[in-house]
């Protein structure tokens, strides 16, 4: 219809030959357009007429006014009611006022409005037929009627104003054709508080000014080329549908500048708004492929999604606020948040995300922050950050596989969370203040060098995921490993920690082809049970610790299963820390274990250098400890190291400067040529064996090995080195059972047995001197072969049990004290050397004992032969020295021999048969220069060897002596029968040489009880002298049968002898009675002279006299003194002193003399002297 009307008008104009100007006069009766009288000429204008409305005139176009053109001048007033059509250019002058109440402006012409055009009433107004209005004045849309641009254009020029003053006074369109609103001037929304919509195709490069109410842009072809957009406080400008932008958009947005549709930027656009509110993006899309530079606040409001698509770039230098829960999609687009830019995520679920499969990059060199709400929001776009990420409220989650953090600042306030999920790539130094939860829960890639250098108290929380190389990560901030999820380092990553890493929960930390360097200032605190440092797969899994690794907080256990290389500190303050990897290396370092905690070494651990620390808990070795060169354990603390199982292997040297406790019943092994030097205390606490297999233990001078458990043996297996060198102390304590040293003990130190039994049981045991203390009821037993040399001392209050082979190749001395002495129960003494026994030696048990190999035994102490076993001297010599005592205390004891060469008993001391009444035999070659005392029973001297009683020898007793027959019995010494007194029986032939002495005590007249008797069961040949000790006042003619024989007596003794008693000297005749008795008869009594009869005897002097505890015998006589006998004044012998080796001055002890007066008879071959002295 509209097109038909247009063509009819065009046809009419063709037939008009010339246009006629018609001017408004207003002469008619009204002001209506269709009143001809109002016109000059007086005709109503048609399409052929140019119309002029002069200044000051008022016209009402009450019908459809048709003109060729119209000019409204000056202060004229036009009211359009029925519409207006013009074909050619027309104008409304500057001061003209046009009120458009209804109808259509059409005709296809161009109207320039320089005046005021008021659109009034609620009726719609229309511009059609390709009609254009160029507005340089003011167009006021005052009422709610729509303003349709139906194939029409409004050009609001630079000076032009379009004022939308009424609610619902929309600029809209219908139908086809143009509906352009080009604004170079100002479009205002004023007056009312309701809504107005521009639904026409607005192309704006001018000013949009919303002072009240709401203005909607609601056309899909709106173009904003630069322009100013002012929105007053309380007012709203809504950009709906599609808006195409370019240039710089400015304005003051103190109200709501709402972006509700699609904004297309094909080239470049800049948002440069001022004001308090900025741009509010409520919904829609930014697209077009161009670049938007935002210098203004943008608020993403409402829960609807917003998107950037089409390869569009948003450069933000201001603040973008995500205020509501709608997601912000970067779908094939880029957001560059520049250095001054802020993206403020203020709402829960206000995610920055993407869809599709193309570009979705968020480059941040400014600030992205999560504020206001306490819930969570996500960045699921490809964040490339070099700027600041700040979380002041709630939770911000990074959740995209292509996020890159190149340096940047990351601030997390207390009570908030920044969570890294998915995959993130880091580079440079990341800083910030972490007072909340920075939580790493995905995969973090480190292609080059990265440093985490955050401040704040909580530090970084790593709850799960992977740190991946091949770069390095420097931890200069606290890193907390939380949750039970595993954490992984891989792909050649190197993690350098100079701060603290807390392993707070039970999740494993895997080092899979990665290295952790815990630097000198770094701490790894394992605060959770089961929070292990471990690995899987191939590649490196190194944990280099130069700082501190702590196990704290919980009472359970955790493990380091990575390849720990430690030069720093390991500290266990709670629970148990376990080393459990085959490649752990401890190069020096400090190891602190608090009371009630444990540090367990399992698997294989290599040690070098000096390991120190305070071990007040359980440092427990349960695996393999490898010592390739030199290592020292120099721990302090009371419990020391506990070695419960496993091996310490060489070929290096391990110095033990700390207490080492061997616990549990499991065996422990040192091997591979290890040398273990102990300067402290090794406690063997349980029954497990301690194997020295191809190794050496040096227990140094300050070292102690305390064997506190039964069965806790020191032993070996294999066939190589197994040496235990002891220069310190080895002791057996605590338990009452037995344990053994089966290694090759080389002792120069001290062996102490406080309880139970310690057995030396190795064929290569060597005792070179040393101290051996055995407590009462304890036993030190030598079995197998023990080689002795030097002086062996100690206190034997328990038993030293010799039950093996004692080898003396050169010289050895037993110089023990104590009450129990040595118990020689079985075995052999050999080696060809000399054994000097200065200790109590008990030959016990019924088992034979052997001395052979050319060995000499010098006994200067007490040798008790207690049981029935034989003592074989096969190719050896037994020297019983002057102070030595051999006490044969049991029947059926044989001192004998079998095979071999020498088998001699040289007695310079005392050999006695005591205690039992049976018989014992000495089957050696006996040379007696001491005393043989048959106190009880029978003492048999074997017939096949020689018994020689030398001049200085004494045979005495009240038992029975069986001498060898014939020439095998040589008696050049003294036979002294009896005891107090008594009878000595000789079972066999008896003989004595001229140097021999028969010594008897005469205490009465009854034989065997009053005086001594030598009862010979055989023939007798008696030569020599009789020595009498008189113990009573005998009378002249008293007789004493001092020797009897059952055979024939061949008598050749000296005819007289003398004795002294009570100051009297007695002379006895010595006679043969009946050829079978030797009888003493008192023939003279005289007063005993105290003056020496010769001048030489007077040169023998006793001083001091009176004496106290000793007296000195000075011999200037030239006599060779042999013996001194001290008598009391009753004639009783107090003591006998050997003077054969005396010098000119010889000190004599007076311990057996009480206070009083005594006589000393001094004997020599040249004569006898008697001296009187007083003991004070």
From TrEMBL:
Coiled coil: none
A Pfam family matched in the record: Por_Secre_tail
SUPFAM superfamilies found in the cross-reference section: Pectin lyase-like
Keyword Signal tagged: yes
Domain of life of the source: Bacteria
Keywords: Signal
Start and end residues of each Secretion system C-terminal sorting domain: 1104-1174
Signal peptide: 1-19
Protein name (database record): Por secretion system C-terminal sorting domain-containing protein
Protein species of origin: Flavobacterium noncentrifugens
Species lineage: Bacteria, Pseudomonadati, Bacteroidota, Flavobacteriia, Flavobacteriales
């Amino acid at each position: 219809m509209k097109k038909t009307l247009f063509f009819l008008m065009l046809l009419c104009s063709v037939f008009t030959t010339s246009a006629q100007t018609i001017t408004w006069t207003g002469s008619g009766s009204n002001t209506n357009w269709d009143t001809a009288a109002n016109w000059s000429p007086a005709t109503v204008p048609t399409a052929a007429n140019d119309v002029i409305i002069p200044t000051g005139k008022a016209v009402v176009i009450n019908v459809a006014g048709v003109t060729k053109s119209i000019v409204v001048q000056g202060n004229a007033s036009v009211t359009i009611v029925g519409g207006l059509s013009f074909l050619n250019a027309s104008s409304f002058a500057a001061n003209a006022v046009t009120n458009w109440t209804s109808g259509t402006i059409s005709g296809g012409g161009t109207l320039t409005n320089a005046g005021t055009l008021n659109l009034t009433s609620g009726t719609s107004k229309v511009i059609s037929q390709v009609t254009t209005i160029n507005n340089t004045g003011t167009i006021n849309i005052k009422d709610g009627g729509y303003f349709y641009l139906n194939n029409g254009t409004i050009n609001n020029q630079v000076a032009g104003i379009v004022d939308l003053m009424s609610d619902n006074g929309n600029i809209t369109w219908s139908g086809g054709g143009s509906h352009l609103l080009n604004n170079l001037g100002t479009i205002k929304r004023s007056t009312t508080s309701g809504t107005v919509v521009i639904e026409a195709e607005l192309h704006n490069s001018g000013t949009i000014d919303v002072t009240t109410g709401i203005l909607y842009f609601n056309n899909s072809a709106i173009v904003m080329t630069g322009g100013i957009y002012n929105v007053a406080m309380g007012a709203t400008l809504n950009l709906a549908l599609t808006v195409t932008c370019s240039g710089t958009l400015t304005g003051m947005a103190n109200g709501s500048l709402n972006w509700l549709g699609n904004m297309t930027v094909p080239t470049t656009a800049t948002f440069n708004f001022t004001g308090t509110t900025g741009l509010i993006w409520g919904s829609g899309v930014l697209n077009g492929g161009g670049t938007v530079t935002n210098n203004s606040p943008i608020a993403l409001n409402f829960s609807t999604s917003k998107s950037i698509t089409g390869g569009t770039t948003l450069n933000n230098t201001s603040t973008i606020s995500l205020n509501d829960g709608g997601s912000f999609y970067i779908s094939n687009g880029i957001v560059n948040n520049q250095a001054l830019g802020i993206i403020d995520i203020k709402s829960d679920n206000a995610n920055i995300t993407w869809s599709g499969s193309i570009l979705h990059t968020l480059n941040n060199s400014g600030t992205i922050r999560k504020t206001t709400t306490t819930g969570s929001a996500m960045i699921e776009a490809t964040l490339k950050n070099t700027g600041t990420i700040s979380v002041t409220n709630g939770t911000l989650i990074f959740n995209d596989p292509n996020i890159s953090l190149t340096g940047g600042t990351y601030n997390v306030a207390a009570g908030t969370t920044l969570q890294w999920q998915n995959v993130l790539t880091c580079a440079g130094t990341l800083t910030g203040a972490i007072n909340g939860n920075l939580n790493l829960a995905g995969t973090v890639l480190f292609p080059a060098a990265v440093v985490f250098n955050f401040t704040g108290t909580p530090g970084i929380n790593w709850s799960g995921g992977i740190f991946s190389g091949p770069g390095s990560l420097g931890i200069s901030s606290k890193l907390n490993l939380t949750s039970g999820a595993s954490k992984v380092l891989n792909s050649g990553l190197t993690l350098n920690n100079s701060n603290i890493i807390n392993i707070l929960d039970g999740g494993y930390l895997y080092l899979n082809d990665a290295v952790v360097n815990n630097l000198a200032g770094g701490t790894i605190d394992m605060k959770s049970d089961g929070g292990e440092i471990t690995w899987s797969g191939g590649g490196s899994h190194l944990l280099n610790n130069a700082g501190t690794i702590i196990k704290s907080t919980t009472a359970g256990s955790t493990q380091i299963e990575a390849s720990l290389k430690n030069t720093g500190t390991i500290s266990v303050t709670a629970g148990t820390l376990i080393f459990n990897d085959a490649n752990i290396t401890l190069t020096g370092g400090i190891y602190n274990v608090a009371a009630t905690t444990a540090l367990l070494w399992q698997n294989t651990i290599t040690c070098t250098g000096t390991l120190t620390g305070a071990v007040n808990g359980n440092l427990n070795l349960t695996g393999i400890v490898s010592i390739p060169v030199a290592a020292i354990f120099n721990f302090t603390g009371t419990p020391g190291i506990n070695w419960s199982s496993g091996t310490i292997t060489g070929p290096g040297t391990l110095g033990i400067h700390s207490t080492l406790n061997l616990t549990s019943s499991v065996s422990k092994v040192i091997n591979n040529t290890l040398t273990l030097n102990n300067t402290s205390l090794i406690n063997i606490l349980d029954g497990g064996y301690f194997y020295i297999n191809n190794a050496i233990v040096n227990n140094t001078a300050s070292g102690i090995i305390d064997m506190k458990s039964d069965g806790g043996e020191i032993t070996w297996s294999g066939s190589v080195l197994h040496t235990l060198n002891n220069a310190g102390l080895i002791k057996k304590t605590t338990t009452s059972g037995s344990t053994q040293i089966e290694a090759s003990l080389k002792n120069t130190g001290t062996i102490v047995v406080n309880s139970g039994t310690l057995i030396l049981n190795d064929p290569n045991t060597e005792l070179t001197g040393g101290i051996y203390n055995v407590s009462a009821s304890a036993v030190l037993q030598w079995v197998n072969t023990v080689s002795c040399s030097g002086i062996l001392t100690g206190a034997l209050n328990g038993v030293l049990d010799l039950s093996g082979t004692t080898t003396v190749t050169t010289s050895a001395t037993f110089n023990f004290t104590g009450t129990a002495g040595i118990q020689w129960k079985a075995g052999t003494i050999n080696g060809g050397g000399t054994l000097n026994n200065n200790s109590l030696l008990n030959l016990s048990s019924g088992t034979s004992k052997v001395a052979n190999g050319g060995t000499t035994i010098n006994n200067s102490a007490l040798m008790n032969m207690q049981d029935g076993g034989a003592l074989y001297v096969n190719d050896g010599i037994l020297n019983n020295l002057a102070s030595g005592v051999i006490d044969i205390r049991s029947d059926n004891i044989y001192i004998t021999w079998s095979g071999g060469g020498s088998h001699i008993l040289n007695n310079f001391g005392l050999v006695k048969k005591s205690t039992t009444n049976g018989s014992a035999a000495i089957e050696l070659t006996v040379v007696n220069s001491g005393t043989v005392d048959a106190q009880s029973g029978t003492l048999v001297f074997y017939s096949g060897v020689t018994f020689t009683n030398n001049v200085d020898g004494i045979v005495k007793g009240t038992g029975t002596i069986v001498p060898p027959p014939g020439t095998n019995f040589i008696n050049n010494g003294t036979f002294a029968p009896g005891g107090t007194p008594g009878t000595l029986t000789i079972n066999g032939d008896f003989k004595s040489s001229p140097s021999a002495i028969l010594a008897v005590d005469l205490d009465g007249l009854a034989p065997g009880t009053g005086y001594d008797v030598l009862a010979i069961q055989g023939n007798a040949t008696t030569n020599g002298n009789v020595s009498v000790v008189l113990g009573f006042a005998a009378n002249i003619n008293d007789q004493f049968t001092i020797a009897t024989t059952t055979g024939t007596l061949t008598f050749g003794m000296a005819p007289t002898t003398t004795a002294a008693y009570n100051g009297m000297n007695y002379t006895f005749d010595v006679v043969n009675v009946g050829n079978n008795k030797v009888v003493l008869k008192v023939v003279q009594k005289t007063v005993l002279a105290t003056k020496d009869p010769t001048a030489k005897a007077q040169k023998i002097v006793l001083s001091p006299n009176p004496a106290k505890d000793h007296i000195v015998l000075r011999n200037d006589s030239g006599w060779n003194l042999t013996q001194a006998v001290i008598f009391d004044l009753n004639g009783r012998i107090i003591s006998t002193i050997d003077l054969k080796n005396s010098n000119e001055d010889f000190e004599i002890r007076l311990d057996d003399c009480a206070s009083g007066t005594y006589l000393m008879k001094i004997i020599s071959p040249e004569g006898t002297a008697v001296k009187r002295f007083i003991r004070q």
